[in-house]
Amino acid sequence: MEKRITLPLTREMARTIKSGDACLLSGVIYTARDAAHKRLVELVESGKPLPFDIKDATIYYVGPTPAKPGQVIGSAGPTTSYRMDAYSPILIREGETGMIGKGKRGSEVISAMKEYGAVYFAAIGGAGALLSSCIKSAEIVCYEDLGAEAVRRLVVEDLPVVAVIDSEGGNLYETGVSAYLDSLKS
Amino acid sequence: MREIKADIITERIAELCVAANCVLPCDIKSRIEDARSKEPWHTAQGILDKIIENYGIAERDNVPICQDTGVCCVFLKIGQEVHIDGDLRAAVDEGVRRGYGEGYLRKSVVKDPLRRVNTGDNTPAMLYTEIVPGDKIELTVAPKGFGSENMSKLAMLKPSDGIEGVKAFILQTVKDAGPNPCPPIVVGVGIGGTFDKAAYLAKKALMRSTDVRNSDEFYAELEAEMLEKINSLGIGPQGLGGRTTALAVNIEWMPTHIAGLPVAVNINCHVTRHRTLVI
Asked: Complex ipTM, two decimals?
């Protein structure tokens, strides 16, 4: 049974989500990939304000295809998350509570998630056509020069994700594989 | 000598870019549906169902299967009796520019690997040309996503490492990649040649239909064995556990030096796209 979650996600709420929870996210999320993360972290490090409120925010690692006429957004599945590992601990410290991507995360990200209270969700990589149907509006917030990599504000409805790493360090990439392999032994 | 106008190549490349990105090849669909029917793990079944639903939507609505519409790999087999009227390189890039522009595909290429400014039109294509007998040109367009490309590896093994060394390297590469390249994956392997030829063979292996096994029985058996071994790792769809880690292992090989055993593993995601036509 899926957990329905309305965003923004407070740190307290983030701590209640457990690795393995299938979730449907609704509300506002922001998009950012490598290039946007670099700029956001540069702002933080120079003490300047961020272009959107990072407190309790969820960031989706996605660079969508251009919208066709009549579409809200093009195909919009997750990109591989480890490329954001250098930046995520800083954004988590600043208030980010949710990350949506796919693939493994580094130990520094997981430490920051435990310390501050944040969740790492995975969406199905390569299911961009399906996932875009959950996006109800999309507008560019900043960094339009980055094209697909610009920061967008999305309103999503029942975006299907799985909590892979939780705020206690539980990791479905490890437990999911071992549970399957154990099932073969019994 | 047969003359083919470069403009024709441009038009065909543009069409192939859109078709390749929106319609998954039949063999890959069959592999995924077959894997779904054999998948015992509940989570994995659910993910495979979503993957099947996704490529159905993409085909029906003519939208990209995945938002990473890739760097555009273009393979040309040019008959030696063909004369191309016009600039071939420019014609290919113009085809990519048109296909990615008119097809609403993502522009994912930066002009310079270190200064990283987007070229804005997904050019240049990664162009591979081969001169073959005949008076035709075979065009293959293969958009390559980088989630899986980044998980690819090459090793210069020693001859003494032998077949066991090759097997261990393939398996370790898939293990290290884990959930990152969007499993279920297709594994392209190149064995032999030189440092660069091994990598090229691995990429070329991904162009072969997964319905076709290596014509050399020894390598066909190695493909089957490695698929079985990879699907015993438990990584599963999206790395969340399950049987279906790979859909196929395709191996290409060529002669090499007495001192060497180059092996390259080029990983592709479940959105293994390529389209071919002949002019």
From this structure: 0.94
